[in-house]
């Protein structure tokens, strides 16, 4: 898979901008608002970056980004949600400003990192908003530590390898995303020249590690909104529907006229969807 992703990145450098449909482009995220606190904590042998926004009472919201990304991609959502919620973002192991200790990437390991982070900052329970790999991390926590989740907004996750659309490997929009994250990695990472190795390691996880499977999710009772984009380049619609159907406490939502990168393409609508779910 790695060779196809690198090819898609090269293609990204040569394609012209297109703006006819919002789902075929990825606008940059705005700057992050000022955090109430931020820094790194040592969890499971790594230094994990996190930031906290707002100081509202009630259950905090934890936003977990997708593969190759970092917490700052949530800027638009944070700016809105922090007005009346405490919002936590972090950089997953090896992503953004967080380090890795050479361990292989697996969803179980990444989930354990987030649980350890919550322990370190003294948070017992969260509304988890997960995008892509973030949703997969959420599915893992839903199985192992459901008491830590008040709810799970699960956008574009997959629980089996056949949930991935094989055309993603040569998709131009996905290649654009890889290129954007390569630039961010060079600016943010403690190992700024290591993107190609990082990409290979994450792609290996994409091709092998999944958070359980259908049988594992049948007993998950965490209130879950399975969210799928109408034009998702990476995850198949039928796979998302299957996840929603097998989980006893799940509902299903389709985000219209957007792709895998809906939080960039329709930031306000995406935030409204989060609010509509966690604020019944």
UniProtKB/TrEMBL annotation:
User: What SUPFAM superfamilies does the record tag this protein with?
Assistant: alpha/beta-Hydrolases
At the top level, the lineage of the source is Eukaryota
Q: Which InterPro entries does the annotation name?
A: AB_hydrolase, AB_hydrolase_1, AB_hydrolase_fold
Gene3D superfamilies from the xrefs?
alpha/beta hydrolase
Enumerate the Pfam families for this protein: Abhydrolase_1
Q: Where is the signal peptide?
A: 1-19
What is an annotated GO biological process for this record, any one? glycerolipid catabolic process
Residues forming the AB hydrolase-1 domain are: 60-178
Q: Which GO terms describe its molecular function?
A: triacylglycerol lipase activity
- What keywords sit in the KW lines? Signal
Where, by residue number, does the polypeptide cross the bilayer? none
Q: What is this protein identified as?
A: AB hydrolase-1 domain-containing protein
Q: Which organism was this protein described from?
A: Effrenium voratum
């Amino acid at each position: 898979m790695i060779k196809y992703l690198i090819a898609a990145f090269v293609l990204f450098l040569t394609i012209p901008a297109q703006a006819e449909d919002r789902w075929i482009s990825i606008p940059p995220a705005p700057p992050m608002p000022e955090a109430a606190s931020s820094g790194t904590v040592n969890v499971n042998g790594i230094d994990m970056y996190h930031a906290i926004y707002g100081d509202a009472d009630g259950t905090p919201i934890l936003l977990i980004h997708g593969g190759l990304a970092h917490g700052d991609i949530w800027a638009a959502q944070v700016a809105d949600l922090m007005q009346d919620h405490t919002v936590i973002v972090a950089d997953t192991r090896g992503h953004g400003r967080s380090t890795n200790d050479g361990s292989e990437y697996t969803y179980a390991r990444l989930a354990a990192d987030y649980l350890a982070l919550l322990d370190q900052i003294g948070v017992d329970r969260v509304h988890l908003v997960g995008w892509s790999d973030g949703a997969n991390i959420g599915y893992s926590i839903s199985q192992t530590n459901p008491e830590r989740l008040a709810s799970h907004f699960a956008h574009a996750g997959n629980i089996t390898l056949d949930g991935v659309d094989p055309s993603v490997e040569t998709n131009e929009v996905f290649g654009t995303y890889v290129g954007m994250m390569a630039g961010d990695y060079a600016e943010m990472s403690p190992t700024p020249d290591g993107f190609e190795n990082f990409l290979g390691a994450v792609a290996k996880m994409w091709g092998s590690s999944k958070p359980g499977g259908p049988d594992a999710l049948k007993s998950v009772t965490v209130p879950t909104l399975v969210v799928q984009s109408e034009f998702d380049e990476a995850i198949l619609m039928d796979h998302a529907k299957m996840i929603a159907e097998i989980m006893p406490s799940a509902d299903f939502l389709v985000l219209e006229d957007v792709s895998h990168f809906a939080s960039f393409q329709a930031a306000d609508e995406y935030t409204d969807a989060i609010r509509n779910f966690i604020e019944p």
